[in-house]
Hints:
This is Helicase ATP-binding domain-containing protein. By secondary structure, the chain is an alpha/beta fold.
Amino acid sequence: MNSQKLMMWDTQRNFEVDLHLMVTDMDKRGEGWGIVLASYVGIPDAVSAISAGILEGRTLSYQSDRFERTTEKYKRLEKKIGMGDVAHGVVYNNMLTIDGVESISGDKGSDSAYIFAADGDIDTALSLHVIERFGFPSEWINHYPTLFKSRIRELKIFRNELFTHWEQAKCIEFRCSEDEAIELIRTALRSGQLCIPSSDVIGEFEYGWDLKTYMLRNAEHLARKLEQKQPRHTLDSPVDPAIADMKRIPFPIQAHMIQAIINTIYEESCICGGDMGTGKSIVACGVSHVMHETKKRRKAKKGTSILLSAPGITLPKWKDKEIALTIPHAKVRILRNSEDVLKMYREVKSGYRPDPNSLEFTLVGIDRAKLDGEKVFSGIWKRLKGKKSYAWHCPDCGQPLYVKNDIGDYVESSWEDAAAGLEPSEEDIFAALASHTMQPNGIPLSHKVSFHKKRLMLKCNAHEAAEEAKEGNDDEQRNLKCSTPLWRPALKQRAETRRKPRVCIAHVLKKMNKYFDLYICDEAHQCKAEDSGRGYAFAQMVAASKHVLMLTGTVTNGKSTSIKELLWRTDAKSLLQAGITYESGVQEWASRFGKLEKVVSVEEGDEGVITKRKRRGQQVREAAGIAPQLTANFLLHKSGFLELSDLGLPLVKLKEIPVFIDMDEEHKQKYMFFHKRLYDTCKSVSSGRDSVGVWSKFNPSTIMYGDRPDLGAKVVIGEECIIAPALEGELHAKERWLVDLVRKELNENRRVTIYNNFTGGYEMNQRLHDILTRSGIRCCILDEPNTELRQERLYELESDEVPVIITNMKLVEVGLDLMYWNTIIFYQLNYEVSTVRQSSRRAWRIGQEKECRVYYPVYNGTQQMTQFVHVMHARGHALMVEGRLDKSDLAEFSRDSQSALASDLASCFASNNLVDTWNRLATKDLEGIEMVEEAEFAAILKDRMKELTNQTLLLCGVDISKRHDTEQKTAADENIFGTIFAEESMERIFPDIQPEVIPVFGNKCKQPDNVIEIKNLKDQKKLKKRVNEDQLCWNF
Length: 1036
């Protein structure tokens, strides 16, 4: 037996790998030594088996000793090395600190941590750990080893002398709580062992202060420091006079935001974050207007071109209600399809530029911008050389295409690897050759074929297969490296598609070579994913513009990676300077600025069928958590955050009401059995090989068995089949609660919106519609798939006075107002906190005159409770980034676990104070907002808006008294017109004209040529120009 082999025995076979290094803890042993870290190499199957065995708690053997995992959580890393026939595996305790892998202890609830120093400098590793974990000063870095000497214990390391890497490594256990560490620092300061470093910083601090108290007590000192920093804009600074020329005058804080962005955007891409309803749209219009007026003052030779992308549902609103009512002179063009963008491209390439006095907006839906032409597989189906079998071949080099089998070896591709259905027979092929009906791809014209949408073969890989098999000489292998893309645009004339030829709008815009002066991305958080079609379109439009402004109501979703790609695509230089590269980007970013849980390796390549969606080789799984350094280093200097309280406007009251419901007894027993068995199965399978995606079945199954027990549940994981029986009969507890609450709200003359999440195959919308209809409650489902028609559908429902609408929260997440329906019920939640936050504010907006209520019904003791806590945790981290929550307060709203997405039953019950905790967090979200009663709201709002408008005009240097005189004269003139041309006085004013031919208030009748037509502008659809209601105009 080789003494350097790490071995594991299974019932049917044995596995062995070469040990590199193993750190063990003698104090945490069961049948064998406790494994803290194990590093080993071997064939890929053996490495994966050893890793899975450690995670499953199996006993391993090395030399004459036995080893096993401890009770803590573990992580695993595996990577193929060399030619791919050898793999390196590492399994390590979650409490381990490894430079470059884990920055601090993974288990925040423990006082213990393992510290590993690869270079043997354990004192420096300990000091860095203390500094990062407790936030102690780096100036005392040389004192920490001595100070914490009694808190460390050295661990035994087994080494293979054949490996030189990490040959000096050392590892210790460090056991110390934060309170104990602070007491040690205090004692050292009193004894003189530590001295406060000399500094020119003037300030004061007392133990127990939170961040807010510290800043208030040191406000004077901080103010002096800020004066030295010379901020780009302050609230005492004037704003550009052009803001006063806007038809809709911004509120003072909006004017300051416009000016701050103008002062920044020429140097940095900007982010305008804010609560829903704070006027991010008018800020964007104001920035565009000021940029244009600035160019005019500088005598620019061309006007200003603005590119604006937004969800398609909001484009009509942007055009008619935002741009037209704020900057009436601006020209607006909407790109709806390939023809529109190609027409614009040809104009620009022909030399078109807006004239110096023109401000032009180009609007495009982000979901339209990402679409590309439909693709079709271009491989050729023909017989393999020297064989009777057929395979797909490269259309360029003519070599066979290969795919990998279950054990990772390359084999010739078969028909099923690219196409569905039966392959053509030899008789069909010979007949097609004889009748000259063979297509260029080797398939008979009469043989109908459809290609898989999930692309398994992306490019020619003949050279990869040849290199792995070591076939042919070097010259032959070099000639094989064509790497030809195997998917080309589908052609309608070949009957490969029914669609018209389509181009990627975003890609065409990029080819206009910085034609646009400014790119405004509305709802930028929807472009946060690094591998999404929206993200690709966003990146192309950033490249098409000189400057970038991002608008979002939720800057982050509580995870660090939710902002990383927006920063990478708009300011890659800053990330590169911080050591973040494209290859290490996501993992490095999450480990430094977030809370990294797991890294999953997948094959890279294109994944979108008709989008430019990419798939990265490394995908991270991250828990909610954002380091303050992220905000300080990457956001503060380029971001502005608007809160509703900043506007100075009152709002009606908003109540957030969590409701925890107990299941009926039979339902509860069936659910608990199903949940426990499914959780145990997923946990067991996830610790082995090929476990990616196992937990994806857990959440929808457990949540939906709570909400739809009538459907039952069936989940197949490998060879296991977990079944929950269907429960027929009366309504379950949550449904009964819903019916009672809706009746109560309707009796108070209120209207209700009900949100669901699983509305596809589970048919949650239809289920609730049937229940409410049987209960005598009138309701409708909002499921309009066309984003541009969805707002019209809402208008129809409002005009029909439908009291209850049921919809998926994703359909109304952005761009829609639900002020008519002032009660919102989240019958189901979504794990995406930005979706929950956005959709919860659809009714509570400026202009709402009725009290708003938001209900969160949750089944206690189920996965729904875990989901609720997860949303609360992520909401807390998002508020911290937005500056509404101190880091010292965050722990109250956080819950640390290995996976906040799936929990065992013991973690699914509400704590005694969970409702109070949620309400305190909601209060933080609304802190500083003036909320008034319904009866007083209208009068207070009118006076406040007039006051705020005057403040903005003063900021712009406008003489308010002269402006008021002009307004009064205009109002008097309008009053004269309104009196003279009232309906009852028409005959008196025009005595010589027959009454029936006087077209009053839009009546349509034949009239003499000399008659003046007078129209009431209430019928605005018949007018070419939108004007104020009840204003009269002349039409000659």
